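Hey, sorry to bother you again with one of my protein questions. A protein chain has come my way and I'm curious about its shape. It would help a lot if you went through both lines with me. I owe you a coffee for this, so here goes:
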Amino acid sequence: MPMLTAAIYIPAALAEIAGCFSFWAWLRMGRTPLWLVPGALSLAAFAWLLTLSPADNAGRAYAIYGGVYIVASLIWSWGVDGVRPDRWDTLGAAICLAGAGIILLGPRGS
């Protein structure tokens, strides 16, 4: 299940961040409103990908995704914005990812 989860959540994070970045580029960077078209498509892809989660309910799927999103956001910040994560970013992301793993893999009662 962890590989399936990664195969869903990693592209979902990239889709969400790219979609939100298109709105950021339009509003904060003065780019053309045409940036909103791929942004909206990217956000729709993100939402669809989350429905493929193996989690047993939507809230748990979002909670697991949260850890992946935090790590992906820091990678985006480094790769796109040129801001390298510091040790506190890395520690916080690791804690969040560990929490997501506990939520994903924790034993559940019947």
Notes: The longest helix spans residues 2-28. The chain is about 75% helix and 0% strand.
